[in-house]
Amino acid sequence: MSNNQTATAAATADYIPPYPPLVDTHGRTFDYMRVAVTEKCNLRCTYCMPEEGVDFMGKDTLLTTDEFLRIIKAVAQMGIRKVRFTGGEPLVRKDIVRMVEETAATPGIKIIKMTTNALLLPRYVHRLKEAGLTGLNISLDTLNEEKFLRITRRKGLKETLDAIDEAVEVGIPSVKINLVAMRGFNDDELLDFCEYTKDHPVTVRFIEFMPFDYEQMWETGGNFLSAEQMCNMIKEAYPNIEDSSGTRTEHHMFKIPGYAGKVGVIPAFTRSLCVNCSRIRLTSDGNIRNCLYSDKEFGLRDMIREGCSDEDIMEKFREAFQQKAKDGFIAKKESEEKPVDISALTKKGDDSTLHVRKSMTQIGG
Ligand code: SAM
Ligand code: SF4
């Protein structure tokens, strides 16, 4: 264990959050925050961003490192114990190691993970491990070089595979591969990814495609592959496959007997796991989203810049979560029926949320 991890363990041992937990009106308690630290990215996955990028926000609109850390410290006081850094691509931020290190030193935070495309990972992986990172979810949708170029619009399959191996070698405690399953693109590779777990001690997770692609590939239809269909494909190919346990949102987890890793299927679109939701989301410009499928946001940045207290930050989260819909279908319907009044959320001259976020890179996948 590194010095920093020892310090972290000491900081969080027996920590009792001084404020009541964050709850909603449907009996759920929230202990996990996903932090989108940037909208920028070094790839252009077709199901996420257009080639030219999205309408990126200006620097002053985005939270600073200290502002992110301030929010993390505030929410830890009401029982948030897990933080995931995502984006955009979190590794394009030069302060990412400091962000992980200071989060690890925050009393109450026990788990720090990151979702990344891994292209910049070799540059940081040792320092991230030292800083206290406990898990990496690495996005990889294909094992075929030409398809990698087609889906990400960039080269980098070998670099990604090497980075996954390096993350395992360095000893990041949990390494997972996230694959967005798309009919006609990678449905013929699901079993190749299952075979990948034979010699690699990682969890490969097949994720349902969601309608957060800027170019609305979703609308043109035909790409969707359901969790149920994926589970059936896997079970048919491996009749002896064993059920395994996963996290609260990893409902379908499997282990092929004798294989080093695991396989999971995530019903991200069919939303069958909303009842177990424990997530809060923070956008890179400092807005709280109480559900991936809700467009309604609650702004923290201006409050912080005007000198609010930690209690005020916690109160804003409570306000947001009192309004959380029972599930993602209801959240989506509410957003469609009552579009967000953006002007009420933003200050004059502010370019944040001037459009409803359409891409996962803007929401934080
Ligand atoms: N850049 C990092 C990465 O790709 O891992 C982190 C941000 S990315 C937006 C987070 C996750 O969202 C990735 O695993 C990505 O595959 C997933 N994602 C993006 N657009 C999606 C969509 N339309 N449907 C399902 N998942 C999507
Ligand atoms: Fe970038 Fe991740 Fe979106 Fe791909 S999925 S464009 S890697 S943010």
What this model shows, in words?
- The chain has 365 residues and is of the alpha/beta class.
- The chain has a domain of 163 residues: Alpha-Beta Barrel (TIM Barrel).
- It has 14 helices and 14 strands.
- The strands form two sheets. The protein has a twelve-stranded mixed β-sheet with strand order 9-10-11-8-7-6-5-4-3-12-13-14.
- A hairpin with a 7-residue loop joins strand 9 and strand 10.
- Helix 2 crosses helix 11, helix 3 packs parallel to helix 4 and helix 4 runs parallel beside helix 6.
- The longest helix is centred in the middle third of the chain and has 14 residues.
- The protein is globular, with a radius of gyration of 20 Å.
- It starts with a helix and ends with a helix.
- About 2% of the residues have low confidence.
- Bound molecules: S-adenosylmethionine and iron/sulfur cluster (SF4).
- The site of S-adenosylmethionine has 21 residues, from strand 5, strand 7 and helix 14.
Q: How many E strands?
A: 14
What is the first-to-last residue Cα distance?
Answer: 30 Å
> For the largest beta sheet, what order do the strands appear in spatially?
9-10-11-8-7-6-5-4-3-12-13-14
Percent of residues in beta strands:
15-25%
Listed once per kind, the bound small molecules are: S-adenosylmethionine, iron/sulfur cluster
Which stretches are poorly predicted, pLDDT < 50 over at least 5 residues? Answer: 347-355
Gyration radius, rounded: 20 Å
Shape: globular
Class by SSE composition = alpha/beta
CATH class of the domain at 3-165: Alpha Beta
Largest sheet report: 12 strands, mixed
| CATH-defined superfamily of the domain at 3-165 | Aldolase class I
Helical stretch count? 14
Residue-averaged pLDDT, rounded? 89
SSE sequence, one letter per element: HEEEHEHEHEHHEHEHHEEEEEEHHHHH
Amount of helix: 25-40%
CATH architecture of the domain at 3-165: Alpha-Beta Barrel
Q: Which fold name fills CATH's third level, the topology of the domain at 3-165?
A: TIM Barrel
